[in-house]
Amino acid sequence: MVAKTFTVEEGWEYMKNNGILKLIRILEGLSEPSFTIAESMMLYTTVYNMCNQHPRPDNSEKVYKKYQEVFEEYIIPKVLPSIKEKHGELMLMELVKRWVNHKVMIRWLSRFFEYLSRSYLVKKLDFSPLEELGVTRFRNLVYLEVGRNAIDVVITLINKEREGQQIDRGLLKNVSDFFIEIGSECINCYEMDFEALMLRDTSEYYSHKASKWIVEDSCPDYMLKASECLKRERDRVSHYMHPSTEKKLVEKVQHELLMVKSKQLLEKECSGFCALLREERVEDLSRMYRLYHEIPQGLENIASIYKEHITGEGTALVKEAEDAATNQLCGLQVLIRKITKLLDKYVALVKDLFSNHSLFNKALKEAFEVFCNKAVAGRSSAELLAASCDNILHKGGNESDEDIEETLEKVVKLLAFIYDKDLFAEFYRKKLARRLLFDRGANEDHEKSILSKMKQQCGGLFTSKMEGMVTDIILAREYQTKLVEYLRSNSNANPGFDFSVTVLTSGCWPTYKSFNLSLPTEMAKCVQVFKDFYDTQTKHRRLTWIYSLGTCNINAKFETKTIELIVSTYQAAALLLFNSSDRLSFSEIRTQLNLTDDDLVRLLHSLSCAKYKILKKEPNTKTISPTDNFEFNYKFTDRMRRIKIPVPPVDERKKVIEEVDKDRRYTIDAVIVRIMKSRKVLELQKLVIECVEQLSNMFKPDIKLIKMRIEDLITRDYLERDQDNPSMFKYLA
Prior knowledge:
One of its GO terms (molecular function) is ubiquitin protein ligase binding. Pfam families: Cullin (PF00888), Cullin_AB (PF26557), Cullin_Nedd8 (PF10557). The protein is mainly alpha-helical. The chain is built from 28 helices and nine strands. The protein has a three-stranded mixed β-sheet with strand order 1-2-6. It has a three-stranded antiparallel β-sheet with strand order 3-5-4. A three-stranded antiparallel β-sheet has the order 7-9-8. Strand 8 (719-721) and strand 9 form a beta hairpin. The chain is elongated, with a radius of gyration of 47 Å. The termini are far apart. The relative contact order is 0.03.
């Protein structure tokens, strides 16, 4: 291409007359044909020639400034006045129209002046590209003048739509696009100008609405309105705003409608969260969860109220049981059933309505821990739960196997909320022992089933001793079968009546008193026979006899008839003394049986002062004293041919609690030593915290007790204090 010689002014005159003015006439809608290819090429060539004139070889900068002036000469006298003279929606329409025309103008002029971009602007990095310069001129000359007014009109239209009026969404979409396009890398007009003002106005709008609705509407109605508002705002963004606005806009609406009024809304007296729970308004509760779940930390207040509500209901059940427990065991069983029913109800709510959210599971757990660890009628929750399990597993119930399994599942779930699981385990072991030894259990499969559930809940160590007890009973049956075969093959060893022995593993079963009871000849022979038999089975085990757990069936011949008596081993031993003596004193019986006074008093009271007076006592009082004398009551009679004579029960609660407290000291010692052996050196506070964490799965340790055990371990040379820092402890290997 050869440069034609003419001045820049001459070239610009040609550009103006044949290019720029024609383009303006086209933009203004006048009858003007579009540019032909030849015309476009001629205009491009003219720009080239203007930039490459002699004697000055490069007039590009001058031409660049002329390009810039084109926009100013068109916008200031023509475009800006046409926008300013209109108002409201008409102003927005004119603004959009002028912006569309301006983009067309930029496109055509960029083609005409393309040589500047290719040869001059690539070297001048501080100069804006042609397209960017065109946008900048419109921003500076038009947007800065009418932009705020346009934003106000848009916000007014948005609020009209919020009030239910129809608006031109297409127009707002075009204006929104204008705000986006008119910005630059450094200036985000959409976000900094329009979005900021729109969000501020949105806050004010919904703040006013919330203040009005919270007074007028119930909680469900308020939530319906809030849900609908959020839906419409999202729809609004999808139609005429940038997608990035949705999150910010929704957060503003959520804050004003849901968070600011959260306390008032949730605590509305007749329709708040607690009322919805009481009335089981499933749909409303689900809507409340969905609304607040979308808000960071939005569920915390609801979960807190959920916890308080459950705590209140559970505590009321406990108080009701405390006040109305005429029959304690019956009342406590009713309480357990009510608590399990309450647990089922609120677990279902968490699962079905609250998507099993961790906050609500935590609230549920903490709430049940509050009232599940309250004492009732002087009995700890651990003891109460163990008694409930015993009642379910006891013989004589009318429930089917499926019902028992379901009930056991629910009761074991309550164990998760009990702090003193070790105390529960000890009470449960005591009751399990009685069911197994006296054949009071409903079904051995149920025993195994509940142990399996406990094992899953609390770990294998928790149930290991109980499982050992069940195993002992199974092995005892095998031993009994072998004993029968032994007696059948050794007729000389047979004592002449049936007897059975249950061999227990000492480490699994609760501890029992072992007295050196002087057995009558008949019973002593049974003991010797079993010893001889057991020696044939094993040579490395020593038997310790626990007579207090035994039972006997003996025939008593009275004047009227013979009655079979079901008695304990101690009772049987005492009664058999009267086969050889018509009258015995308290001291004689004590000497012959080798029992303590306390045990003998209980024993003789059951035989002479209770419902069945098998022995006559002189004097005939209701208490036993060391000076009393006893005779067999031949005149005793009863309509039954078989009767059970109970022994007054011993309250083992105190003993169980003492044993658990003793075991806790050993457990704490072991945990402290294990931690210190691993850490070697540790601060007191951190040691205590770690102890609490490791022990909390079995019981809630007392901080003072932990510190006492630390001091005890120091005296026993397991630990020592740091000489420079008394709160620091060292492990002594």
